Amino acid sequence: MEQSDALVIQYRKELLCPPNLFSFVHLFYSSVKSFTLRGDSRSPASAQKSSSKSTVPTPAKRRSSVLWSETVDINMRESLTAKEIRRQEAIYEMSRGEQDLIEDLKLARKAYHDPMLKLSIMSVEELTHIFGDLDAYIPLHEDLLARIGEATKPRGTVEQIGHILVNWLPGLNAYKGYCSNQLAAKALLDRKKKDPRVQDFLQRCLESPFSRKLDLWSFLDNPRSRLVKYPLLLKEILRHTPEDHADVQLLQEAILIIQGILSDINLKKGESECQYYIDKLEYLNERQRDPRIEASKVLLCHGELKNKNGHKFYIFLFQDILVLTRPVTRNERHSYQVYRQPIPIQELVLEDLQDGDVRMGGSFRGAFSNSDKAKNTFRVRFQDPSPGQSHTLQAKDVFHKQQWFNCIQAAIAPFQQATTPAELQGLPELHEECVENNPSTGNVKTQKRASTASSVTQVQVDGNASACVSPACTTDNMKIVRVH
Prior knowledge:
By secondary structure, the protein is of the alpha+beta class. Helix content is 46%, strand content 14%.
């Protein structure tokens, strides 16, 4: 009988009887430890015997951190220069990282995907949406591992690796779809965690040794984490490669290849995330449906801010328009209800407000006591007062205020270069209390939109504000998913 089948049978028994978490953990652990615990010299039989005697879960097993220099003969090591040893260590680190990733991809399938499918904890469609095509990437990384192995000399050194990387790296383009789907996959997984069966299963996995105290998303996010490490790994190998070595030019070429791939993946992911949020917008009237929203391909920044009345809003700064929304939930579906009229970037005025300029509640400087005055605020409004709206927004701290202010300022700069401070001061004051929209109370609908091309992507920071990321930034420090 397959070990995964035995695991399923045991889990079903425990659902019917008073649960015995420890026995479930040991069975689960023994079914996956053969490929998750490298460097363990015990046989599977002795490992099973040892675990059956224990009455408590085995502590999480850490991966070994053996250095290349510890795996080779000391005489051979002493024959190499310090620089060459560091080069071999860097190559070995890349090789070990590939092995770790392969193990984690297999673990995600064997310990999470397959049991949840067999136990009908999630449907095939849900699991496909969350796990993507992870199995397809295992041979890709096994291929690199095999190539490095073939290039390794009997004494344990790799003389040339540049040609291997130049030929192999283009295959990483396969991750475009996987990374683009991460936002939607994470949202679905978070929603499914509210199901008691899913929550129970994932908690049992988390408490078992094979997980290394990592949750499911940590395993699913490993490919993205690995992708952004490649430029650093290649640069480290290059740094310790002699200038007259044949690898120098090839490693430089490989770095350019991976940077281009990461830039493309980041762009594709940014477009996907932008569309994800556009599809979650709900409009109270047709006038709010600005075509610039539908045409957006870039979400420059987004996050939660408060207005001066203390109400929470979720703000989206698309490439051509600013949209204020209120998060709503209907039938467990999360969406964003558009608030008032979106402000096109070319019509947007941004004002920096000093601490104390505005009182939470709507009064301006000097009208109320100092204890009520707000900090970390700024104002956005139309240049033309006829649309009749202005929004004073408050960030949670000065750091997030500066992030928002810089991002909006960068977006509007091309449209307002000819606008002088004196002209901005001459614009009429707009009072938020007098400009409430009176939207109809008809059925709220959601509209799907097509995408257009662009060259800027976004990341979200701490769920409150986002930093703008241009293509020039999407290399070593590329952020493919939200940074918390």
